[in-house]
Design goal:
Elements: E1 6-10, H1 14-24, E2 29-35, E3 48-55, E4 58-64, E5 76-81, H2 84-96, E6 100-101, E7 106-108, E8 114-119, H3 120-128, H4 130-140, H5 148-156
Helix pairs in contact: 3-4, 4-5
């Protein structure tokens, strides 16, 4: 395990979530799976307790801690995409696997974890600033999944 690792709290499905992420995203894998050495409030001895995994190179652990701490929008993974095809692939995988759409490129997976699927062109527009950033931002504010062609058109004015 790395010195600094993101810990994500799941009710019971940390392993299923980690395996799903590994199927969807590059540079994502499932590592060690640790089983509970004894009974605990929301599980039994031998149940999967902790799953080590990476999400696009970021080390994480999934903790099957029970239902008391659900995910919120206070934490999300932002995945930068290169084009509409990549944006669609990630968005459709998350939303189509029991997830939900949100606004401005955000969606939630079926475990409640939030994702920002953000095309590079939108990040580039924000970095440029000024009128170009404002036009791209205004266009983004009308979207759920980001439409790359509309962001590019907004950038050009």
């Amino acid at each position: 395990m790395k010195k600094n690792t993101i810990c994500l709290w799941y009710n019971r499905d940390a392993e299923a979530a980690a395996r799903f992420y590994a199927e969807v995203f590059p540079d994502t894998s499932v590592g060690k799976i640790h089983h509970a050495p004894g009974d605990y409030p929301y599980g039994k001895q031998g149940d999967v307790l902790v799953v080590e995994f990476t999400v696009v190179g970021i080390p994480c652990i999934g903790l099957n801690g029970g239902p008391q701490f659900p995910h919120t929008e206070a934490f999300s993974f932002q995945i930068q995409t290169e084009d509409q095809a990549e944006t669609d692939r990630y968005w459709n995988a998350i939303v189509g696997n029991g997830g939900a759409e949100s606004e401005c490129g955000w969606c939630k997976d079926k475990w409640g974890l939030n994702w920002q699927i953000t095309p590079r062109t939108l990040n580039d527009a924000m970095a440029v600033g000024g009128d170009e950033a404002k036009r791209a931002f205004d266009a983004m504010m009308t979207m759920k999944k980001i439409d790359v062609a509309k962001i590019d058109a907004a950038r050009r004015g």
